[in-house]
């Protein structure tokens, strides 16, 4: 997850803000064991994964904690920057 956010976080956020359907992308049109909300890239799913990343910082090893925490903060930063650009 951390690498996805690091390398593609901004693109993912822009995709969830667009009105274009994402269901033609493999795996995006489904949900899993953890997330049961709307399928596809959507603000609800983005927010879920921010929350889940912060939760994971308490569940992962001490070695991984900084990486997961960095990803969570990066997602928050992307959200705030993206929201500011839309205003």
UniProtKB/TrEMBL annotation:
Pfam families: DUF3632 (PF12311). InterPro entries: OpdG. This is Uncharacterized protein.
